[in-house]
Fold this protein.
Amino acid sequence: MKKILLAAAALILLAGCTQKSEMDKYIDTLMGKMTLEQKIGQLNLHSAGGFISALKVTEEDANVKLLREGGLGGVYGGSNVEYHRQLQAIALESGAGIPLIFGLDVIHGHETVFPIPLALSTSWDPALVERATRVAAKEASATGVNWVFSPMVDIARDPRWGRIAEGAGEDPYLGGEMAKAYVHGYQGYDDNFDKDEVLACVKHYALYGAAEAGRDYNTVNLSRQEILNGYMRPYQQAAFAGAGSYMSSFNEFEGIPATMNTYLMDDLLRKAWGFKGFIVSDATAVMEEIAHGIGDLQEVSARSLKAGLDMDMNSDGFVGTLKKSLDEGKVSVKDIDRACRRILEAKYKLGLFEDPYRYLDPERADKEVYTAENKAIAREVARDCQVLLKNDGVLPLRKDARIAVVGPLADNHSAMAGCWAMSKHTSETVTILEGIRDAAQKVTYAKGSNLFLDKAMEETVLYGLMRTFRPDMPIPPVHTQSNAILIAEAVAKARQADVVVACVGETENMNGEGASRSDISIPDAQVELLKALKATGKPIVLVLTTGRPLTLNWEDANMDAILCTWSEGSEAGHAIADVLFGDANPSGKLTTTFPVSVGQLPLYYNHKNTGRPHPDYAPYRKFTSCYMDVINGPLYPFGYGLSYTTFDYSDVTLSANEMTAGGKVTASVTVTNTGSRDGKETVQLYIHDVYSTSTRPVKELRGFQKIELKAGESRKVDFELTAEDLKYYDHELQYVCEPGDYEIMIGPNSRDTKEPVILTVK
Ligand code: NOJ
């Protein structure tokens, strides 16, 4: 049997090699015929001119002119089969006749919108994320897209940064598991792309989520040891999963912009992790290196190429200056050939040389996109991406109750769609009001408040994007009704109801790119509404729409229940109603710490101890590491989330108290569903290295399992531990498991873990 397996493995290896050499031969021949200009053209990526769906190719179009000269390797931003077909035809009859690659920001679903990535991560269910991503890949590929700018795997510890919405939160281990799930969902499990699989693009490489003070695009200032331990794992795991491309980030690292950072792109990604695909810059990131203070366009383009960047998005730095740099000896033919080859390899693997129209089937979109089946999956997924933060017993609601649904986010389609939804169907997303109305009969509604008390702020939030691109365009009036009138109407409805569902939080344009906030509370106009509702004495369920953790102290103290529903996508309202009425039991758990105060930021569970540690919830004490005016601990910790049932954890046991470097130990806990409903629970395992040669966090997630337990059911949950699970990057940047004692902790969240048990590594 063993022999047969070995022979089979050898055959597979051989087949892989043959395939590789066929690809090499094909590309060698192709590149042998290409001019220098045509090679440089492959390194150029342009936007299709906004995210327009009904584009028509004209000869005056700058893209078309460039394409005819062989100056374009890809186009992004469109998802229109007809437009892409026209462009592809031009590409094939121009220059070396190389097909274009078509990219798009498919971040949380495509036409069928899925929960935003931060919400998806709160499922703690990589298989579910892979399923969502598979649907996105099918839909994207059916609309002319073969390359998606996802997953976004940036670890973020500061919720002031609006793009925290686009990632999987603050933990590198969980982030790594999610990164793999996305890559497999988009690309499948091998290098041969089926025609409903698309090339993933891991972003933003690297460390974009560590922007100082949460201000978008800001400087990153971290040590190599810190990034390797705290930030890089998701990028690394995506490479190990076979991700075909990466996107460089806007920020700098160690004084060098990421887009020209040899350590990040070459030393780590390619050499240490074995990444073989291509790296594209973020939009205009090459050009932005001028503002970083590095040099003119020619200088920054040459340095970016040399450092390992292969494709330039929207700067025209490569296409405009590389030839000159070659003449001046700043780059070599080898540098250009290397980048060109990587892009051609991706096109080869996508099957574009065999059939350039492979992803441009005019029939598929009608049959495969935004289907009832895909929407049903979106609803199922969204049910598992809601975090119950508080429940005094008011939830689940009765369907025959009189329910007042109030708040500016109750009937808001775009807020349900979320920050990266570019679907043509965003106006059809099911709102919370619609979802509740579909489930219950006695429902009343009032908008209840504006978003902000300040008119200018309301305008900025609602029309800031439009103003950026069309400063002269008049914007519709805001605050057409005063907050007082809106509140009065909502209060009147609340008084007639048994229960109030207050839908407040952030609209989709309050998070995502270019949406940093210094105050992360629920906006003032909406808090006024909540306070007026509270005064009615009616029970209030706060349904929170948000793309980031918010400060919710008053809400936690005064609301009867808080359900964090992020932006849940096409089927948001239905999935939220499923949870509100108990047809689904909430099982989401936070992947980001919710602070008590913005002044605590950055606040994350896997912090280190100081020499003068201070307990998270203890009062102020001079000469210890704490604040005078706020506790150290979070309002809701990483990993936290309630259910309509309760789970009990037994003490943790180890199969052995000692482990050799090559050994294995099993850590176990028995979890019992002690409530009266079936439910899902994510069991989390954390480690702490008691003494290490350089400092390590107080807790580090190293395993989790999402289990389903019937009411009353118990299950033993085992985690197998090896030295691999205990490793970290030491001061010399070696990835090591140091001998000594490790605390092993298991529990329902990062705060409430059971008493640690000690595992000694010999
Ligand atoms: C800029 C964003 O940072 C990135 O996430 C996105 O993929 C590109 N623009 C292309 O739209």
Q: What stands out?
A: The CA atoms of residues 23 and 348 lie 7 Å apart. Residues 105, 149, 203, 282-283, 513 surround 1-deoxynojirimycin (CB under 6 Å).
